[in-house]
């Protein structure tokens, strides 16, 4: 897929890899702004940003998993488990620090379970994370009986609704998580190991990379991101809701794939994932503004996943040539 020019050669596949996702976002934004003028209102755009926070933080965890050749299906239910227990702890004790520790620890626990199942027992990531998803779903329903926990203190609600100056506090947290993820992937030996494992695990083993340790780290990091996302979501809703978060793992996976991270592993960067999250956010927001049925919204997101994977396959084929 090459077009010759006087200055050399131009690769459509390479151009798309670098700039395609940004162009798609700009095009969608312009079209949605023209179709529905409410889309570009300040209130609506602030809502989009708030909604994107949780998906983006989940996507940071999925990013490490996918780059290393794995996938995590558990975040939706683990998010509900961690967030609801954090809210319950806050309601019972009034101690914000303890509530944060409980939420993050719950996420880390399930991340560690995923990591142990995958690395110690060689269970495929799809099956391991599906199992932990079921465990988290059963655990949260057994603990709460499906009951919501409301009337949470203002200090907890601030995490999801507060501002630092004119910037929403959840956005500040999201930016910090993005920076940490970027540093891990771009500047640390762990990040290089994850790329190597996703690119060719056999070669990574032969070169001395501790594959199991790296995979366990990716799972644990994803778990912490999930716990944090759960806390922020419950704080935004001012209540612990066991039914919340269902299906959010698919939104996060879609954001990462749309952002150009390969399902085959070894390829991807967090900057494009940010744009992928924004694309998912504006598409869902626009469909809500247009009063599109939630079932059709799922169809659209499913098609989006298929298109993103097809593009990934074609781009990889073109680059290999």
Instruction: Please tell me the overall pLDDT.
Output: 89
Q: Level of helix content?
A: over 70%
Low-confidence stretches: 1-6
Note the total helix count. 13
C-alpha geometry = globular
Task: Label this structure with key terms.
321 residues; mainly alpha; two-stranded antiparallel ribbon; 13 helices; 4 strands; globular; cell membrane; transmembrane
Task: Give an account of the 3D structure.
The structure is a single chain. 75% of the residues lie in helices and 4% in strands. The longest helix is centred in the last third of the chain and has 27 residues, at 211-237. With 321 residues, the protein is mostly helical. The protein has a two-stranded antiparallel sheet. The protein is built from 13 helices and four strands. α2 packs across α8 (189-199), α3 (75-93) runs parallel beside α5 (125-144) and α4 (96-119) runs antiparallel to α10 (211-237). Pfam families: BPD_transp_2.
Give a topology summary.
Layout: E1 2-5, E2 8-11, H1 12-35, H2 42-67, H3 75-93, H4 96-119, H5 125-144, H6 154-161, E3 163-164, E4 167-168, H7 169-187, H8 189-199, H9 201-206, H10 211-237, H11 248-258, H12 270-289, H13 294-320
Antiparallel strand pairs: 1-2, 3-4
